[in-house]
Each structure stands twice: as C-alpha cells, then as structure tokens.
Amino acid sequence: MAPKLVDARRELSLANRIVANEGVIDAFGHVSMRHPDNPNRYLLSRSRAPELVTPDDFIEYDLDSNPVREPSVSQYSERVIHGEIYKARPEVNSVCHHHCPAFMPLLATGTDYVPIFHLGAVGGIKPPYWDQHDEFGDTNMLVCKPEEGASLARALGAHWMVLMNRHGVTVAGTSVKDCVFRCVYSARNAEYQVRALTIGDRIASLSPGETEKAGQIVVQTTGLTRSWEYWSMRVAKSGGAVAAETKPVKTKKKPVVKLKKKTVARRK
Ligand SMILES: [Zn+2]
Q1: Are the beta carbons of 82 and 156 closer than 8 angstroms?
Q2: Which candidate, 84, 86, 47, 82, places its Cα nearest to that of 249?
Q3: What is the three-state SS of 61-109?
Q4: What is the Cα–Cα distance from 170 to 154, expressed in whole angstroms?
Q5: Is the per-residue pLDDT at 5 higher than 50?
Q6: Ligand 1 center to residue 148 CA distance, Å?
Q7: pTM of the shown model
Q8: Residues 37, 2: Cα–Cα separation, whole Å
Q9: Does the domain spanning 3-267 belong to CATH 3.40.225.10?
Q10: How much distance in Å is there from the Cα of 167 to the middle of ligand 1?
Q11: Pick from 136, 184, 128, 181: nearest CA to 156
C-alpha cells in the first residue's frame, strides 16, 4: 500500500475516534475522506462504532457509493450521504454524518443554528435544514437511497453543514482535520445555544460579518493543528490510540484457508 494511503487511513481512523471521544458520535455516525490519490473514490469504515474504527476497516467506494471490491464485511447503510456530497462538491475532501445529542433540541424544533461564540462560526451563517419527508414521504429516516443522498447534497449547497430535521447533522470539510474541527465546535455551539435558550428568550449571536471573519480562524491560525494535537492526546489518554499496522479489508474473493488447522484439531 502506498505510504500516502497508509497515512490517510491512520488519520481517518483517528478522526473517527476523536469525533466519538468528543461526544459528537456514539455507536452510530461516521467520518469519511476522499481518496488521496483518486478524487472519484472515497474511504469509509465498515459498519462499526466509530470509536472502534482502525486503519484496517476502510472500504474504498466510487462516488455512487458502490464498493470498488465487494467486501466480506457489513457496510454503513447511510454511505450515500458521503458519495453524493463528494460528487456535488469537488472541494470537499471529508464528510461526517452524526446524531449528536447537543443538536437534537434544535432538530426537533426546527430552530436555526446560530453561532453564539467565535468558534461556533464553523457552522456558517444560517446552515440549511433538510427534511427527508418533504421529498420522500414516510421512510425509516435513514438516508440510504442515492436520490435521498443527492437531495441532501442539494440542500447542503455551498454550506459546510446541513441540519436534518428529526435525524441528525451532516458536516463537510476541505480536509479530515477541517471536518473534525467543524464537527466538534459546531456541537459545542449547539450545546451552548440550547442552554442559553433556557435562560433567555434572545440570543446575542455573531453578526454575518463576524461569522465570516471568525470562520477563517481555522485557516489563519494554528487552531487546527493545536486542536488536532489536543484531541489526539485525549484519545490516547482514554486508551483509544490507533494501532499503527494497516491492512486492507478482506474481500470475498480472498479465500480463508483454515481447514487444515480444523482437520488437525479433529484428528487429535
Ligand atoms: Zn443518520
């Protein structure tokens, strides 16, 4: 495996663990990245809790969210969210879909997200809402069909975050680190916003101009590397450091030859 891809898999597994460790995702939710060598493909873990994802778990998909090699492991049902956003937004290189508890009061009431402090600007100015029912009627609420993913990507438009009524949030980034930064700080902002609403009717939010300027903090300072280093340390402290070894996910074509061992055991 090319060194660049090995590094990318390590970074993406750490991203999954960071976003989980910071309380944005739990058993569900996922972080993906566009393939570092092929813009028409992306990497997403096999179906498992993000906090457990290792560099070995990633499956390579085309932008229609079909696996490049048929895996022998189960896949996330909502992977079309990722593929359709990569298809629609060439500058997006990482996507996270989550159901963060901090956002749920906003999503249940259709309340707009507003940045209430400078780091909350990562969510952008009035990120759009999308409701699956509007276009697709009664569903099980999972975004599984390509047309559902494409509809969500259209709602995201040129924004970096789309709020999904009665479901969750999808966040895009120019890089894995950028996406993680947006996820964590938009979740913090949502938490503070909801708390603020319990003690006051009015929220003093950032102005559109302030939001735009504060949104640049991430690219104009050491904020991104500083946060990544801090969150990585917290993952390590929690005992969740990722194993350095990287192996590709097993495919169906790869025979599993363990018959000999079993035969020997039976003879004993
Ligand atoms: Zn979901």
Answers
A1: no
A2: 47
A3: EECCCCECCCECCCECCCCHHHHHHHHHCCCCCEEEEECCHHHHHHHHH
A4: 12
A5: yes
A6: 12
A7: 0.88
A8: 10
A9: yes
A10: 6
A11: 128
- What stretch of H or E contains 43? strand 41-45
Question: Catalytic residue numbers?
Answer: 78
Angle between helices 3-21 and 176-199 (to 10 degrees): 10
User: How far, in whole angstroms, is CA 79 from its chain's centroid?
Assistant: 10
4, two tokens? 């660049």
Beta-carbon neighbours within 5 Å of ion ligand 1 = 168
List the domain boundaries for the chain.
3-267
Q: How remote is the CA of residue 137 from the centroid of ligand 1, in Å?
A: 17
What secondary structure letter does DSSP report for 118?
G
User: Given a cut of 60, is residue 254 above it in pLDDT?
Assistant: no
CA-based nearest residue to 56, from 94, 95, 9: 9
Predicted confidence (pLDDT) per residue in 202-252, tens digit: 888 999 999 999 888 877 888 899 999 999 999 999 888 755 344 555 555
Paired tokens of 245: 């070894």
Phi, psi of 55 (to 5 degrees): -60, -20
The pLDDT of residue 253? 54
Which secondary structure element, helix H or strand E, spans residue 104, and what is its range?
Answer: helix 104-109
C-alpha 54 – ligand 1 centre gap (Å): 21
Distance CA 64, CA 82 (A): 9
Is the confidence at residue 98, as pLDDT, over 70? yes
Q: pLDDT at position 240, please?
A: 80
Distance 97 CA to ligand 1 centre (A): 6
Distance from residue 77's CA to the centre of ligand 1 (Å): 9
What phi-psi label fits residue 125: left (phi over 0), alpha (psi between -120 and 50 degrees) or beta? beta
